[in-house]
Write a structure and sequence with these properties.
This protein is mainly alpha-helical. The protein has helices at about 5, 15-25, 35-40, 50-60, 65-70, 80-85, 90-105, 110-125, 155-165, and strands at about 135, 140. It has a two-stranded antiparallel ribbon. Strand 1 (about 135) and strand 2 form a beta hairpin. The chain is globular. The structure holds iron/sulfur cluster (SF4) (2 copies).
Length: about 170
């Protein structure tokens, strides 16, 4: 069942709405006036089943439960464009992050790609694998050739702090 179908049966939950808004002290989704500037610049628009301004509207209307249990909140690319474009500091990005946090708190299924990033950070301390680059002459370059120091793997202190920050 799609999220849009689910919404036809949805019930507003003001307690969850207040919980989300209370986490957003920096931005004010309740000030959104639906101008859609966020949506017109959204990087993930084609992938999102609901548009950023609709996510803010549904959150403000208390349909948090449905958003938290859907895949939609994991599709945002975290590019922050909506935050930059918003004239009201309503920032769909921050609302989506608060919805993700609530989903994790509730032990909802986190997409595999995020779990891979966590494993990668634990192993190497980096969000992405180091990639081979080439010079303009198409010669392969590595860190040593570029005079860059060797990448240090994270120590146990980093790992335990990281896991603590994740609530593990
Ligand atoms: S979140 Fe901001 S940019 Fe998007 S519709 Fe609301 S006021 Fe407009
Ligand atoms: S942060 Fe997410 S919702 Fe906002 S513009 Fe980027 S992809 Fe779209």
């Amino acid at each position: 069942m799609s999220l849009t179908d689910l919404m036809t049966m949805a019930k507003s939950n003001k307690m969850l709405q207040r919980q989300i808004l209370s986490q957003l002290w920096e931005v004010h989704p309740d000030e959104c006036f639906q101008c859609m500037r966020c949506t017109s610049g959204c990087t993930s628009l084609k992938l999102l089943e609901l548009k950023p301004h609709e996510i803010v509207l549904l959150t403000n209307s208390g349909f948090v439960e449905e958003l938290v249990s859907s895949d939609i909140i994991w599709t945002c690319a975290s590019c922050l464009k909506c935050r930059e474009r918003c004239p009201q500091k309503a920032s769909p990005y921050n609302t989506i992050m608060a919805l993700r946090n609530l989903a994790v708190e509730r032990e909802a299924k986190v997409p595999e790609v995020y779990m891979k990033v966590v494993a990668q950070i634990l192993e190497t301390g980096l969000m992405q694998q180091v990639k081979m680059v080439t010079s303009r002459e198409m010669q392969p370059l590595n860190r040593k050739k570029l005079g860059l120091p060797k990448i240090q793997c994270p120590d146990d202190k980093f790992k335990s702090s990281f896991m603590k920050a994740l609530g593990g």
